[in-house]
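so my prof wants the structure for this chain in the tokens format not the other one, which i didnt know existed until like an hour ago. anyway here's the sequence
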Amino acid sequence: MQYERSRNDLASGPTPDPAGSRVGLVTRDTPGRQVLTRLRCLALLAPGGRGRVAATMRAVPVIIPVTFVIFGEDVVFGPGPGDNLARAIADSVVAFEADHLASDGHAEWGVHVTGVARMFRGGDDAHCFRLSSEIITGWSAVV
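here's what i got, hopefully its the right format
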């Protein structure tokens, strides 16, 4: 995905999203993909499912498969058992991604959420986190 932001824009923070009250990065359509609105991204995530969280553990990037649900407009996920993964995520900036593949194996859509993962009480998992959807972007395939 290509971003239309200058260095000055990045210094001033995310750009307001005209489709919602929160913010997101301004993106543009590329051949074969169209940019999704905030509301469409949330709708695609609404059923929950499986996704991935990118974090850093001992200064090394890790990708952690997770199951997630949507709580309000936030992503709630658990990294599974193990205190090391939970420590890598707790109160850290992480990236979350969920997508969907068509029956032919081609990607149909992808949604990305970036923010600080906060402990969330109330989930079945002992280590459950809540990620604000304040920064959310997404795309869908153009057929």
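also thought this was worth mentioning. The CA atoms of residues 86 and 127 lie 6 Å apart.
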